[in-house]
Amino acid sequence: MIPTIGHAAILVGLALSAYAVVAYVLAARGGDARLSVSGRRAVIGSFVAAGIGCAAMMISLLAHDFSVLYVARNNATTTPPFISAISLWAALEGSILFWALLATGWAALVLHRYRERHRALMPWVGATLAGINLFFFTVMTWPGNPFARTAPVAAEGLGPNALLQNHPFMALHPPLLYLGYTGLAVPFAFGLAALVTRRLDEEWLRIVRRWTIIPWIFLTLGIVAGAWWSYEVLGWGGYWAWDPVENAALLPWLTATAFLHSAMVAERRGGLRIWTSALVIATFVLTLVGTFLTRSGVVASVHSFTQSAIGPWFLAAIVIALGVSLTLLVWRLPDLAGGGRPSGTVSRESAFLLNNVLFLGLTFAVLFGTLLPLIMLATTGEQISVGAPWYNAVTVPIFIALLFLMGVGPALPWGTASWRTLRDRFTVPLLAAVVVASTAVLAGIRDLGSLGTLALAIFVGGVMLDEVVRGARGRARGRGEDPATATWRLATRNRRRYGGYTVHLGVLVMAIGVAVSSGLAIDRTVTLAPGETAAIGAYEITHDRLIVEPLAADQRVIETRAEVTFRGPQRGTLGTALRDYPNSPTAIATPAVRTSLGEDLYVTLLASDPGSGTVTLHLFVNPLVVWIWIGGAIAGLGAAFAVWPERRTRPVTQPRAEPRPSRASVETVEGA
Amino acid sequence: MRSWTLPVALGLAVALIGLGVTLGLRDGSAAAPDARAASLAAELRCPDCQGLSVADSPTRSAREIRAQIDELVAGGATDDEVREHFVARYGEWVRLAPSAPAVWIIPFGVVVAAAAALIAWLAARRGPPAIGEASSLTDAERRRLREEADSLDA
Amino acid sequence: MSLRSLRWLLVPLLVVPLTWLLFTGFGRDPRVIESPLIGRPAPAWTTETLDGGQLSSAELTGRPYVVNFWASWCVPACVDEHPVLAAAHAEHGDRLTLVGVLFDDRPDDARRFLDRYGDAGYRHVLDERGRISIDFGVVGPPETFFVDAEGIVRAKMTGPLTDDVMARHLGTILPGVSR
Fold it and tell me: What's the ipTM?
């Protein structure tokens, strides 16, 4: 019964999306507002349909309804309810259903919000978003039906993928990431609408900026959550492996960030319309490429869902999306060309443009590395790998240059910077960096990467601090406020700038975390009998006992656990285990991580001998890792601060054409 | 602030970087066998994992490959000989860093070319001078003007 | 043709190569790796057998032989190909040697597997440290290597064997086997 409702809901969503596309296109061409309203209602209806579909799937999972093929493959009677619920997005078909929910949600939100405004753009926005939703409903109707049935109904299911069961972040990472991916369809829709209607103006830029930042926040948090999760779960002590699917999430993030920066230049002096439109298109197409790589089985990855019939459909979507948007861009090229004149060689603008060059360089490098094995295979037939050593060697210099630019750029004026400006702004931070780096060398730190990042961090942090202090001091002096109030008032009245500072601060903190944790991490592998102790860094680890028993939460899983006591900067006990899942040929490591602000103690169980109780442990001390996650959160908060609607009163210069509005509407007039 | 302070600070920074790089290079060439073995292990792909290096992987194959690397290095093999040993068994696929120089040059080439093009474009289309140049304000006035303007900046 | 109309070329120029590239990925299993051993002498090895004896590759020369890497935990692939190997041993055992090599497995588990699915009668050897699988460049079980009477590797199969694949590869090392 429930699965039938779910399947019906998908078909309803398909019909509503198709209707919405037609209605919106007709509305756009004919100008009939009622068609727009009808189309919008259809999109909202498709959101409700997707919601019903997801609810039906979740109920089927919680009820262990093995008549549904997806449930039979990804659930078992012993699966705990929490895991059952989040298995909605654990495998291919369910994840597409969840994706459809989020995509229709964004579409409904945006279409509803702007229902009274931008009348020329919105029908095309609606048509594009509904078209994208139509694609996902189509995939769910034909090649990837989540509610496909199976007969005869098995008594027991296969259970969820072992790797997706042993950490709560499975509930966090996919939703955040998908919110980011699906949200990036919105600026794309506005981009296409603007190209069709030839309305690439400041208004458009403001809307697209806002609706890029919001999904960007989710994408950033999603990527960071993914790295944190893989660190806690996979057991090799690292958080980023340059896996093709990880790269696929990074690519749209890079182009979206590049867009946000170039949009500031475009807003300032006009121009750059071709560039910003191209970036908006590229970002969305890259989200499709990313999801294609994950789902098509074309590349081998920790993440790939199994090879399925869905691949060709996603390829078709990429071709259509890229083809249509490129055609539109090329068609309108003569209208877009030209614009404001750039100012001098050393200015904030040139820093932003150089930032774009570097971000696009990174995008190219990561895309090149990810696709190269495929290219070599298709052309020469040779099989090669491109892995972490290559990516690190190529991307780290570019990241360092970007870090430098991040500090320098906002400190430069928009116009040409004079030598005096450079001197005033950069001398003290530069000297501070030199002093700190020299002190670090004398204190014994020899690792070049860490020293370099430390120096760069001091320099960039110093410049940023100087900016904030300068502004606060100016305001405090002018208005007689104390420094704290001055800074806060300044921040809330310049949300974009101070939000931007906060995002940069978050990135800086992440950079320090990454540099120190990779440069100064130590590890060793030890074999201990019960009672024996090993030392690593400032810690002493004592193996207490080896326990083999079924998991309390899921009796089918047998856990082999080494219980360990540790002393040092942190002290306590931990259990690190290998878990045998019935549906996995190899045992799954469940590392134990003890996090402090200074460092992480990370212990993985490699092997054990139940007879003697001897265990082989891989011990890590990873300094400053937690700051990577904290930095990511700071960056997300900063972006949220930047985009938070400001309370603005009606500007004095605007003539009052209509009767005086009520107080409520005046006080909460928001920007786009 | 005196006009020579920024050049001096820059000079110090560059000197420090230069010193660091030379020291780093010196250490690198006379690397201890453990360091060599570790870096070779980081370059080779673990056969039964998804993209992890032999250095990071906990599998039995990875452990054995690491042991073989240690033996080869201790026996006097050069870095290239160690790589060849495994390429002869698994093919080029086992190397995480491709051997063709073009693969390394292309990304840098693209970035450098794009940056150079940008700088050339900016230099050729210089706009009108902005605040801070060719004006008759005093230093203090100029600074205050900039601060006020910046505090209004969104 | 003016420069303005040339810009339309951008669309196919960008779309076609990307489509072709991603399309070529279909149908290939990215986990199947070509072996550099084809046409080269098979690696030499000496090791213990599952029943406690000793075996070395030197004893196998003079006759074609098949080396099959498997494990008791490799289900369903190793289970699926087990009867194919048994049939090959039954049919060609007089002029062909089959050897099973245990990949990252415990001898007890392997014996239990053979008890359950049937012991075809050919020998199995242990590879405690994994040296043999590294010398053969094995990524993961099941992988099978076909070596001719001179000791040259002629074919490799990644993944479970089927009857036709077995016949085809046997044809490269055993004269008179129909492909």
Answer: 0.85
